[in-house]
Amino acid sequence: MLTLRVLYFMIPGAFANSTPVVGRGILKRLAVPVDMGIKFRGRPLFGKNKTVRGFILGVLSSIVAVIIQRYLFRFEVFRQISLVDYSLINPILLGFLIGFGALFGDLCESFFKRQRGLAPGKSWVPFDQLDSVVGVLIFILPVYIPPWDVVITGAILAFIAHIGVKHIGFWIGLNNAPW
């Protein structure tokens, strides 16, 4: 049951992470790099793949996901699998914190990848798999402090899910590499 509860809680973060990839074709004016081309030690801060558009779409999709979870919370089956009481939490705030945390964690990991000279899309185990979940765990602290079993389960699930999603993305042509 814990695994299901953690997976359900992770849905908005997964939306935040996947929406920038899926939303590449919209809002082209916002397809500018978050780092605005600034370099550190001669290397990009985050790289051209981390865009303002992706950040905005990712955070918005996370907010929408939490609003849906709040609606579903009125049904007993969803109350049983919820880690938080969605009726007491502002869904826009929680959605923002989860989405921003997931994408901020990814940005931090991208910074270190660029500084190490790793190309975008190049695998960097275990940081690629855990960056977003660490970001979410940090940013949600003002509204939810997860117990250790949730943190550990979330990290394990994020690691496994990231690998699975990368493989699927490769098979359907969204990723350059399966890993």
Structural overview:
This protein has 179 residues and is mostly helical. The chain has one domain (2-171). 61% of the residues lie in helices and 2% in strands. The protein has helices at 2-22, 52-72, 76-80, 91-116, 127-139, 148-171; strands spanning 39-40, 43-44. It has a two-stranded antiparallel sheet with strand order 1-2. A hairpin with a 2-residue loop joins strand 1 and strand 2. Helix 1 packs antiparallel against helix 2 (52-72) and helix 1 (2-22) packs across helix 6 (148-171). The chain is globular and about 50 Å long.
What are the defining features of this structure?
179 residues; mainly alpha; two-stranded antiparallel sheet; 6 helices; 2 strands; 61% helix; globular
Offer a quick outline of the entry:
This protein is mainly α and 179 residues long. It has helices at residues 2-22, 52-72, 76-80, 91-116, 127-139, 148-171, and strands at residues 39-40, 43-44.
Secondary-structure map:
Blueprint (H helix, E strand, L loop, with lengths): L1 H21 L16 E2 L2 E2 L7 H21 L3 H5 L10 H26 L10 H13 L8 H24 L8
Antiparallel strand pairs: 1-2
Helix pairs in contact: 1-2, 1-4, 1-6, 2-4, 4-5, 5-6
Our count of helices gives: 6
Give average pLDDT, whole number. 90
How large is the radius of gyration? 16 Å
**How would you write the strand order of the largest sheet?**
1-2
Number of strands: 2
